[in-house]
């Protein structure tokens, strides 16, 4: 029996037990839909059924249209970080400059409306988005609760990984600890073990799927252990097998008693998961995975990119900037006061953190979803009022300044304010939460890459002298 089949069998055994528990828990709540008598398809079965169709779709597209030019590359793009170059395949999401992100063609408000929720919850479960990103289908409530149970069943973190985190000094950045722990999970990789023994290429996706499911399941406990070690007492609650992913993360962090924070975690994990394939964390995970590195090593590489101040670390920088502003303006949130502070930031040669985006040319829908959450849950919070005033004034100032292509806020401009309100005040830690969420977006594409036989990524590079020759320039 192959190791992948062993893993799957063990997971299914645990899943049957967990689903029974989950069903018994859920029926006590008003409005819960009972499980049907017919066993629904699992996530793995749903995805496996789509592989032949997707492979044929790609073959047909390449055969009939492979020679067609879909864009051009300018020298400015080459030296500008490949900005806007059409060269990646990313099935889960597409980012439009005017309307924002769509997950499998669906906007964030549409996902909030159609994806299953927890009993009594107001926000969509991230399990549902993971299912949507991987398969292109909206799952049923029953399928999502079964996925919650399966992740809970796979959640045990190896003892040596826990000890590794415990040995890290508190001065080591939380993201460095997070990446270290994910890398260490390579020891458990089904893909790496199967590849070492020799497997058929058609089975790559199967082991990648198993690794991705195991990895996602363990991330809340790893993330919570890092948080509790650095900032609290080092004690982490056990995963509750009858609860959903967002609840367990919130509870292990120490905030499970606050229903609104639990719902915030569900929203946070959903909207931060995926943002097209060209951003650093997504592209890095895809690139490293294209070399047939395991999901553990691939995600760890992506996390290292996410840790950069020009990417995931930005939400931490936004909060620090807002805190500085609050000290400077005090209770004066007038238009004039905010405008003066914005200009003082720009005139000092600094950027306004949380504003601008490489692709977007409007307010980030992820920002809007968080703003709507705040308007419902914390409309009188002083920091939220400050954020609202910045939102009102900053686009005009940045437009007048003339050096920002997109003068509107992105997702980083808001998330820290919500976390602060509920007591998660340690800004250094915020990118770890972003990392847990981003795993839900990049790992589905990694599974898809292996299922359709995507090749190793290897673009062509030239020296500056060669580019000068190509464009007919004299240096």
TrEMBL record:
<keyword id="KW-0808">Transferase</keyword>
<protein>
    <recommendedName>
        <fullName>Citrate synthase</fullName>
    </recommendedName>
</protein>
<dbReference type="GO" id="GO:0006099">
    <property type="term" value="P:tricarboxylic acid cycle"/>
</dbReference>
<keyword id="KW-0809">Transit peptide</keyword>
<dbReference type="GO" id="GO:0005975">
    <property type="term" value="P:carbohydrate metabolic process"/>
</dbReference>
<dbReference type="GO" id="GO:0006101">
    <property type="term" value="P:citrate metabolic process"/>
</dbReference>
<dbReference type="InterPro" id="IPR002020">
    <property type="entry name" value="Citrate_synthase"/>
</dbReference>
<feature type="active site">
    <location>
        <position position="311"/>
    </location>
</feature>
<feature type="active site">
    <location>
        <position position="412"/>
    </location>
</feature>
<feature type="active site">
    <location>
        <position position="357"/>
    </location>
</feature>
<dbReference type="InterPro" id="IPR016143">
    <property type="entry name" value="Citrate_synth-like_sm_a-sub"/>
</dbReference>
<dbReference type="InterPro" id="IPR036969">
    <property type="entry name" value="Citrate_synthase_sf"/>
</dbReference>
<dbReference type="InterPro" id="IPR010109">
    <property type="entry name" value="Citrate_synthase_euk"/>
</dbReference>
<dbReference type="GO" id="GO:0050440">
    <property type="term" value="F:2-methylcitrate synthase activity"/>
</dbReference>
<dbReference type="InterPro" id="IPR019810">
    <property type="entry name" value="Citrate_synthase_AS"/>
</dbReference>
<dbReference type="InterPro" id="IPR016142">
    <property type="entry name" value="Citrate_synth-like_lrg_a-sub"/>
</dbReference>
<dbReference type="GO" id="GO:0036440">
    <property type="term" value="F:citrate synthase activity"/>
</dbReference>
<dbReference type="GO" id="GO:0005759">
    <property type="term" value="C:mitochondrial matrix"/>
</dbReference>
<comment type="similarity">
    <text>Belongs to the citrate synthase family.</text>
</comment>
<dbReference type="Pfam" id="PF00285">
    <property type="entry name" value="Citrate_synt"/>
</dbReference>
